[in-house]
TrEMBL record, chains A, B:
NCBIfam families: birA_ligase (TIGR00121)
Domain BPL/LPL catalytic: 69-260
Organism whose genome encodes this protein: Paenibacillus amylolyticus
GO BP term (any one): protein lipoylation
Protein name: Bifunctional ligase/repressor BirA
Lineage: Bacteria, Bacillati, Bacillota, Bacilli, Bacillales
Catalytic activity field: biotin + L-lysyl-[protein] + ATP = N(6)-biotinyl-L-lysyl-[protein] + AMP + diphosphate + H(+)
InterPro entries noted in UniProt: aa-tRNA-synth_II/BPL/LPL, Bifunct_BirA, Biotin_CoA_COase_ligase, BPL_C, BPL_LPL_catalytic, HTH_11, Transcriptional_repressor_C, WH-like_DNA-bd_sf
Top EC class for this record: ligase
Ranges annotated as DNA-binding: 21-40
Annotated GO CC locations: cytoplasm
Keyword annotations from UniProtKB, A to Z: ATP-binding, Biotin, DNA-binding, Ligase, Nucleotide-binding, Repressor, Transcription, Transcription regulation
């Protein structure tokens, strides 16, 4: 941690109470003048303070933007998010991470943007990513595993986001196969899992995560309004995007570590517990066509097992489902 | 075809003989002044002419570089190479096509470079791509097929290059699984097949092809000298890179069309006929380890069938083999 991150840590812990300059000076092993310098550094980053002589400093407001220092402080990870690039605007965070990946950057690197001007969704769709309203984030993964298991990573990522949203906001979020996160039947998060292959081997995966955080109802364009929702709409409160991003990355690293060490079984069980699409009548569309039937569960590779109306059981590796019951 | 391409076509057909200005003017439906203008356009592109009054024009020499007009004339394809970008220098033609692919450019687009400053080989290796010596080319494919079949495309690309080299130069080239092209046991061409996935579906593939064309023995760095060879070394002659690139793209489109319409069987048979690594003792290295045994053949997905010394038969989807017998 840098000195200004340590300072921020102290002030956050004080929870709006004053912390004296002397205490800070002792804790951080810096002079009183240096304390004042670091307070100003945090001011530049968008934090606001009250400074009262003999009382010290107290934190009034945190920046509205996603901030690097706050993210690093809130992360409980070894590698995920420890290299984080936060941009005001980019065409697509997926494209940014793709470039980093080809340059050899290591696993866990993250790009976050306040705004994406050409955000990508699944099936070549656009992902609406207006400034300041969401978490638009891409994470580089370099899993040591066979290509056959990529559907497992798709499920794992959705599970991590769903769990982080639930624990951080208390909202009752569920997962629609493979990895849409829904609240009350409306989509609150979409995930785009893109991978690069050499011959038939995985080189890397990029998990793109888009969470609608601080959208008002009026913020949605007409076509999204009936099918999308945000954490602000669901909780009635503004949600701190920096802390939520840190919670997602922390959850993701924990599940990913567990997955690498213990395999997919535990992930599958956790995923099934939050699924809203199992044991229901569904319609799956993908590049190979449309299948109707009942979603029975997921198999050991992460594929969806569907029982068709004629009784035949098939496995579906990717696609989009709609609930028909 | 543009007018200067038509003109070039006439002069190439004349095979070094004079073609009168009047004949050109009639054929191309342009004025004598316009003929002169198009001759100068070709001069700018590196062609050299003799112009003699009352006799007309004859082609003396073609440019030493890979040229767009010559490529378009020599191609016998519908789509492959019809969009071709020819660069003096680029870090990597794979990277260039990746960018085009993400922008939505359609199948068959090609980037060729005189030089790659950071040419990529398999397994993160460098590919030595000095200016003017080879064909450094990447082609965008958007196959409508399951991910499981990507090894088939790897084989198909190697087959196309091997067949084009054989028919264009007469050199006795063979294929080492999956797609190295060898002449007299030395590598003359390497192929890098990279693919992009969304979830578990193929978005596109980029076939990177590097052919050592006009290397002298002295052109090779010490470490490549014992294992690499070029068409110039093997034939004793300079080989026209533009025409060879066109021959490769033509062969590739023909095989790819056949594959899309009739499936992999015919490709597999053609591939096996040119293989130098079947029915021999081999060692395969890939991300999962090292296996020794005899290469028996390829299966319906394009994977290599290996019989281990203990009699067990396994299939290998990707890797690198060395001949041990």
């Amino acid at each position: 941690m840098t000195k200004h991150e340590e300072l921020l840590h102290m002030l956050l812990k004080a929870d709006g109470q004053f912390v004296s300059g002397e205490e800070i000076s002792k804790n951080l092993l810096i002079s009183r003048t240096a304390v004042w310098k670091h307070v100003n550094k945090l001011r530049d980053l968008g934090y606001e303070f009250e400074a009262v002589s003999r009382k010290g400093y107290r934190l009034l407001t945190k920046p509205d933007s996603i901030d690097e220092a706050g993210l690093q402080l809130a992360l409980q990870t070894e590698v995920f998010g420890r290299k984080a690039i936060i941009m005001q605007s980019t065409p697509s965070t997926q494209g940014e991470v793709q470039q980093l990946a080809d340059e050899g950057v290591s696993e866990g690197a993250v790009v976050l943007a306040e705004e994406q001007t050409n955000g990508r969704g699944r099936y070549g769709r656009r992902w609406y990513s207006p400034p300041g309203k969401g978490i638009w984030m891409s994470i580089l993964l370099r899993p040591q595993q066979s290509l056959r298991n990529t559907p497992q990573l798709t499920l794992l990522t959705g599970l991590a986001v769903c769990r982080a949203i639930r624990s951080f906001t208390g909202v009752d979020a569920g997962i629609k196969w493979p990895n849409d996160v829904l609240v009350n039947g409306r989509k609150i998060c979409g995930i785009l899992m893109e991978s690069a292959l050499e011959d038939h081997e995985l080189r890397y995966c990029i998990a793109g995560i888009g969470v609608d955080v601080n959208f008002d109802k009026q913020d949605y364009p007409e076509e999204l309004s009936p099918i999308a929702t945000s954490l602000q709409i669901e909780t009635g409160k503004t949600v701190d995007r920096t802390l939520l991003a840190a919670a997602i990355l922390t959850e993701l690293e924990q599940l990913y570590d567990m997955y690498q060490k213990q395999g997919f079984n535990v992930i599958a069980a956790l995923w099934e517990a939050l699924s809203v699409s199992l044991h229901r009548d569904i319609k799956v569309s993908n590049a190979h066509g449309i299948v109707e039937g009942m979603a029975l569960g997921i198999d050991s590779s992460g594929a969806l097992i569907v029982q068709k109306k004629d009784g035949e059981r098939i496995t579906v590796f990717s696609g989009e489902i709609s609930l028909t019951d």
